[in-house]
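Example noted here:
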Amino acid sequence: MTGLNKKDMSKDSKKDNENPLNIIYIIKQIWGRKKIIFISFLVFVSVTAIISLFLPSIYMARTTLMAVASAPDFISIPGLNSMPGLRPDENAQKILSIFHSRTIKDYVIKSLNLIEKVLGEEEVEASIKPISIVREMLDEIVIIRHDLAAGQIWIEAHYNDPIIARDIANQYVTEARKILKEKALTSSKMNRIFIEERITLEKSCQERYETEKSEFQAKHKITDPQIERERGMRSYPHIYRQKVALETELREVEGALSENNPRIITLKKQIRAIGREMEKAIGMVSKKKQSVDKITQLADMNMKIQTSKSILKSLRKMLEQARYAEAKDDIYVEVIDPAIAPYQRYKPKRGRMVAMAGFFSIFFGVMLIFIMEWVEQTWGLEIEKIIKNRLGLAKDTIWFGKKK
């Protein structure tokens, strides 16, 4: 009985050592077939190294900038923008909207002539516009990164030519500044543009009113009573002095000459003529009688012109205030670090690729060993013998580092 018990215990221990869940057994299987891991390592590393040599070199140019407002409406304190109740920083968000727009891409393409530089002599389908292709390529070339809390924006351009990559990154900033000047991105700028449009409209109205008045006066041969009154008031003192001088001379000669004397008759006629001029000057009598309706129409035209002038005066004052507010609320892009042409490639990072391939090959080799062991344990297939028979190798050839 004792001998039988020893045989049973030896069999149980052998089964425990061959149990797939036993750590020692797993390590023995991996070590016994370590050539699988070694071969997979060589294959993966060699293939990855060869592929990395054929990949084109990509260079990255980066520019760092900050969106700044001349006079912000609130104090920006780091860490407070995320608190409820406080308005977030909108300046960087507006700049980001410009950088992601199709407009700035088209401007960059035209400014740098990227269609010729990127596409070259490559044939393009007639139904597809070249600028559309280059625009899609810019989506892959340019990467916009941002930190709204700090208000910083990074523009990265990845391309196989370091000079073009630098130009693209810097041109994005140049075109963004142009768009900021052209577009109304602040309420103050929109107010200023609205007031300028109103001033232009009011000037055209005033010119139309003055043209209508001139045509009306020329058609009906009517003069402006207000203008005539002003002219009369300016000429009245001079006419009055002439009349007094003639009356004084008439008194002097009336005692010496008869009434029928030509000199006295001439003086009387001159006094009567000057009297009519004085009446005309003060507006009591007009040289040509003008109808009341036409004078009323002319007065309405004068009222329109005076109203238009008052409106223009008020609008000009509002324009000055709007320009001052715009200068305080203006947004501009401040470049911290301009992009420079890189001299080292950004990718492919061949060392990292080979290292990752080596790590993956070890994992792949271990998994392959587990699969082979599982197949042998489940179906009783000896994979080594099958491969040797397929390749015509001798039975005693050690293929995977484990001899049966």
In short: DSSP finds 14 helices and four strands in the chain. The mean pLDDT is 75. Residues 292-328 form the longest helix (37 residues).
